[in-house]
């Protein structure tokens, strides 16, 4: 393998790792904020317990999300220095803004939230988690704006003297129609992930409590278990299930919008996603094809829905869509000789995996809403199992979606915009750093091993804390007295007061 | 000053802020085995001491770390050429810094999650790794930039790892390391109470003179080879601040000592960026290949956009970070540390869970 292949693998591996953790953070921060808000407004301590319980899982996840995120900020320069030179004038601005606006906000206020339970007034403390929630979502906006510029460069011109893309309209970059479609789609995916995570854990606990209540001879214990199932897990689960429903609808709508944009802006990506090898009028949607796939000649279409792809692309059933072969010829004529086809196998299956895995959350939402209807508390063992099985599906769908969108733009790093400056485009060969393959291999192995080990620990910790459930010492919020104590003089005098939280 | 020159100063300020704030974070991490341990104490007591150390930076270290992420982002936006050459040229030092930072983030956040001595020992290793590696390697990295890198006409790094390891760079690494340890010890004396306050100040006092010697030795070497008037003034300031540190730590004047170590770090940042001012990265192959501010800068429009963004956001960021320090201003002593609320490594069996309630 040469430095280019290793660099591509490295960026792919580190980014996929990062994006296992990111959607949970993006979706869970606002959900925890809502839980804390309900507690603050109603005074219902069950919502306080839910806040603390899911807050802990959120923090375990946040740590590794940050750790894997730092790498990304450096990696552009380390492995893709020629790319960084070419696009830095445009690409750097959203990155710098992400740091200034979002990263400072989330990291500072998360510290205040973690340590401020007994030190800040209740409402100020609640505001902290909301600012964290805004911060994580804002950072998503900036980084997606940066990524969307690579997919559909706007607001820039090619400067022949400096031989690079230069920003001419920042507003155009921030309101790129690709960004405006990708951001809500990513957000919806993140909320689907967090909703599924919370709902599944809630259902599992509801079932577990109900079954334990039945088994035990201890009347008092049975009553506590039943009360928790009804007044803690059920409301939290119903809230999360509705988050799934709303984000699921949003995913479908934004996905459709994004698909139409892609047919316009990146026809090669969509042609390969559909195994559309040759230009067709009234193109069918392929449900199943067989063959080696990375080769148009070997593909046999098995099942297809007539005219559907044309409809998805343009809202008309008989639109003419360009095929992979024709797009290849087009690029050869306009940009120069080369292979401009993405990996057909990966794009085809990643696209289908993305949609397919999202079905896991849909199934959980249907089952969950049905079995908790009209105040019911489910005790079916298989519902508990279904809940656990559903947890990984949105993560898989997120990864598949990003693999599709990123590998679908290959071999481009900056995809030529059909209606933009024709000189702004860059292939991965042109973007990679001038590193030896040994150097890049060392970092690939290092990151893979470190991330691998940390992922195992992350999973064990999340599992351990989810199985433990809400902790006894988090049953009641700190009283107002302790809040005032901590906020008072701040001198050594209140040293006898234990910290409400310490690492 | 032209807009690119102003942005050079902005990048310098962001890195100076990083060294200032993460300097004591790294220092606290590096002092874990020293201030965090005392002869003749039980394992339990030692753990409480180490938890005091971590908790002095607990609410703020993550926000402090963002300074470098924003610094790198600002570098990317304002000087893409500088970002590209520096990050691809200093590949292996940066890789190790990243490994350290990754280890530190998870070790700090996950340490208290499991109540088990072996778990905590591994986390302490992670915190140590994540403090020693960056503290040393940032010094090595910037010393290399100051001395220059083998970069060709396209500003691509064409050297190997051997080009990065030489006495000047190593001395730079030692200088930042010892400076951050002292800064951390002084910070601890400000943030802890009772016996740990005394112990931290004792460490700071012992380190004050060696720190002054190492930092000034590096500063003088740099002055002799790459010095300008600005770096000479900064070096004088660093010298005075180092002497003040020694006096203040002997007199147990904590605030004065902290101001002095902060001033030393600021002066070192001025020395670093004052040296880089001439050529962002000098080429050791041919001075004609030097990466200059004019050659690496973004377009005027981009600089205008990020200038407006910074003018709006930076005061707000500085404001709320300062407020965080104010909220958590109280000293921490071993008595303030609550007992561990971590879970056991393995879940108790279901039957046991049934009985527990």
Automatic annotation (TrEMBL), chain A:
Region (Disordered): 473-503
Subcellular location: Cell membrane
Record keywords: Cell membrane, Electron transport, Heme, Iron, Membrane, Metal-binding, Transmembrane, Transmembrane helix, Transport
UniProt membrane topology term: Multi-pass membrane protein
Biased composition (Basic and acidic residues): 473-487
UniProt cross-references to InterPro entries, sorted A to Z: Cyt-d_ubiquinol_oxidase_su_1
Sequence intervals crossing the membrane: 20-41, 53-71, 91-115, 127-150, 187-207, 236-254, 349-371, 383-404, 440-461
Family in the record: Belongs to the cytochrome ubiquinol oxidase subunit 1 family.
Name this protein carries in UniProt: Cytochrome d ubiquinol oxidase subunit I
UniProt organism field: Williamsia maris
UniProtKB/TrEMBL annotation, chain B:
Main location: membrane
Pfam families for this protein: Cyt_bd_oxida_II
Location of this chain's protein in the cell: Cell membrane
Record bears the keyword Transmembrane: yes
Coiled-coil residue windows: none
TM spans (from-to): 6-31, 90-110, 122-145, 165-186, 207-224, 230-248, 255-281, 301-328
Bilayer disposition of the protein: Multi-pass membrane protein
Keyword match rRNA processing: no
Keywords: Cell membrane, Electron transport, Heme, Iron, Membrane, Metal-binding, Transmembrane, Transmembrane helix, Transport
InterPro entries named in the record: Cyt-d_oxidase_su2
Taxonomic superkingdom: Bacteria
NCBIfam families: cydB
The family this protein is said to belong to: Belongs to the cytochrome ubiquinol oxidase subunit 2 family.
Protein name: Cytochrome d ubiquinol oxidase subunit II
């Amino acid at each position: 393998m040469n430095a280019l292949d290793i660099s591509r693998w490295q960026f792919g591996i580190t980014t996929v790792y990062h994006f296992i953790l990111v959607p949970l953070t993006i979706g869970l921060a606002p959900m925890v904020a809502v839980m804390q808000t309900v507690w603050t407004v109603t005074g219902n301590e069950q919502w306080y317990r839910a806040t603390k319980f899911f807050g802990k899982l959120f923090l375990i996840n946040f740590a590794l999300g940050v750790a894997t995120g730092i790498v990304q900020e450096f990696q552009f320069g380390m492995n893709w220095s020629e790319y960084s030179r070419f696009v830095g004038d445009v690409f750097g601005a959203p990155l710098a803004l992400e740091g200034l606006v979002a990263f400072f906000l989330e990291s500072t206020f998360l510290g205040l939230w973690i340590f401020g339970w007994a030190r800040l007034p209740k409402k100020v403390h609640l505001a902290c988690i909301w600012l964290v929630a805004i911060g994580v979502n804002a950072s998503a906006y900036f980084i997606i704006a940066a990524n969307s510029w690579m997919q559909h460069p706007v607001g820039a011109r090619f400067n022949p003297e400096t031989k690079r893309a230069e920003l001419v309209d920042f507003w155009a970059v921030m309101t790129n129609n690709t960004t405006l479609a990708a951001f809500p789609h990513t957000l919806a995916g993140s909320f689907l992930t967090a909703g599924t995570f919370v709902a599944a854990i809630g259902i599992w606990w509801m079932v577990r409590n109900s079954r334990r209540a039945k088994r035990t001879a201890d009347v008092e214990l049975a009553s506590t278990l039943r009360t928790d199932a009804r007044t803690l897990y059920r409301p939290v689960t119903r809230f999360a299930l509705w988050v799934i429903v709303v984000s699921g609808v949003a995913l479908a709508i934004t996905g459709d919008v994004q698909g139409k944009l892609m047919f316009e802006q990146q026809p090669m990506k969509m042609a390969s996603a559909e195994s559309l090898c040759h230009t067709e009028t009234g193109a069918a949607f392929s449900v199943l094809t067989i063959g080696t796939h990375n080769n148009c000649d070997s593909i046999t279409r098995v099942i297809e829905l007539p005219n559907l792809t044309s409809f998805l692309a343009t809202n008309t059933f008989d639109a003419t869509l360009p095929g992979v072969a024709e797009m290849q010829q087009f690029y050869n004529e306009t940009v120069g000789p080369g292979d401009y086809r993405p990996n057909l196998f990966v794009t085809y299956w990643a696209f289908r995996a993305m949609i397919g895995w999202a079905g896991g959350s849909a199934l959980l939402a249907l089952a969950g809403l049905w079995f908790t209807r009209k105040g019911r508390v489910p005790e079916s063992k298989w519902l508990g199992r279904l809940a656990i099985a559903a947890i990984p599906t949105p993560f898989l769908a997120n990864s598949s979606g990003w693999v599709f969108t990123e590998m679908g733009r290959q071999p481009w790093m900056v995809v030529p915009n059909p209606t933009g400056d024709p000189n702004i485009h860059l292939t991965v060969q042109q973007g990679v750093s001038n590193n030896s393959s040994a150097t890049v291999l060392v970092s690939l192995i290092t990151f893979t091993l470190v991330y691998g080990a940390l992922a195992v620990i992350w999973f064990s910790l999340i599992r351990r804390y989810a199985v433990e459930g809400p902790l006894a010492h988090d049953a009641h919020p700190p009283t107002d007295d302790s809040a005032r104590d901590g906020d008072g003089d701040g001198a050594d005098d209140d040293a006898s007061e234990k910290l409400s939280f310490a690492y | 000053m032209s807009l690119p020159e102003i942005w050079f100063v902005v990048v310098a300020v962001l890195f100076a802020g990083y060294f200032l704030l993460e300097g004591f974070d790294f220092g606290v991490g590096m002092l874990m085995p020293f201030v965090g341990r005392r002869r003749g104490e039980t394992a339990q007591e030692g753990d409480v001491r180490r938890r005091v150390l971590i908790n002095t930076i607990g609410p703020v270290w993550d926000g402090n770390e963002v300074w470098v992420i924003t610094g790198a982002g600002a570098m990317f936006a304002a000087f893409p050429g500088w970002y590209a050459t520096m990050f691809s040229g200093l590949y292996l030092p940066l890789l190790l810094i990243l490994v350290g930072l990754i280890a530190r983030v998870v070790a700090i956040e996950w340490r208290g999650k499991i109540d088990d001595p072996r778990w905590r020992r591994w986390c302490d290793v992670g915190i140590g790794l994540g403090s020693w590696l960056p503290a040393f390697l940032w010094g090595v990295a910037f010393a290399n930039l100051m001395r220059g890198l083998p970069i060709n006409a396209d500003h691509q790094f064409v050297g190997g790892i051997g080009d990065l390891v030489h006495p000047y760079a190593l001395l730079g690494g030692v200088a930042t390391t010892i400076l951050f340890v002292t800064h951390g010890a002084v910070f601890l004396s400000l943030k802890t109470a009772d016996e740990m306050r005394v112990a931290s100040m004792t460490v700071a006092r012992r380190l004050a003179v060696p720190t002054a010697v190492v930092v000034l030795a590096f500063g003088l070497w740099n002055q002799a080879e790459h010095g300008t008037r600005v770096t000479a003034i900064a070096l004088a300031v660093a010298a005075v601040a180092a002497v003040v540190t020694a006096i203040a730590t002997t007199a147990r004047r904590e605030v004065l000592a902290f101001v002095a170590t902060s001033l030393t770090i600021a002066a070192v940042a001025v020395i670093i960026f004052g040296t880089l001012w001439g050529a962002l990265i000098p080429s050791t192959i041919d001075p004609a290949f030097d990466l200059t501010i004019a050659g690496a800068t973004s377009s005027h429009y981009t600089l205008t956009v990020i200038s407006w963004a910074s003018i709006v956001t930076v005061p707000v960021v500085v404001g709320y970070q300062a407020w965080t320090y104010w909220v958590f201003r109280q000293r921490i002593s071993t008595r303030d540390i609550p007992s561990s609320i971590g879970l056991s490594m393995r879940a108790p069996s279901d039957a046991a869970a049934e009985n527990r309630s």
